[in-house]
Amino acid sequence: MDRDCCNWDGPTTRLFLDLCIAEKDKFNFTNQGLTRDGWHNVQRSFKELAGARYTNKQMSNKLQALKKRYRAWKDLHNTSGPGRNKSTGGVDFDADWWDEQQTQQDAIETERLLNRVVHNLLTLTNWIFCSDPTKIGDHSCVPAV
């Protein structure tokens, strides 16, 4: 295996995270990450269970990348419109998001209504000023303003 590059598939990543969690439960974890003993235990267990040998640097890089992705997901989850309803497990939106959506829908409906009114007025004007009923709908009957 190339020591500079390693591939982390789903099951391998899951195993790595489970081993890190086990070390955290043993208090071999600080705010920065795993302690020296924690890394040693993770490396040893990882080699036994996965048959793969990664360096401390590779595992540290993977753990930092996963922490970074988690923080980005958490920030996005907490600041964007959709959230997760813990009781139903479904997607949930806050009241501000719904208000914004309703305002957008109201604007769309108002525009549709105005378009219908303008269309009806043009049709009515055409009907009033057109002497030939077969040309209703043809704008050639509408007088210039």
Automatic annotation (TrEMBL):
Residues 49-76 form a coiled coil. Pfam families: Myb_DNA-bind_3 (PF12776). Keywords: Coiled coil. InterPro entries: Myb/SANT-like_dom. Residues 8-100 form the Myb/SANT-like domain. It comes from the Eukaryota. This is Myb/SANT-like domain-containing protein.
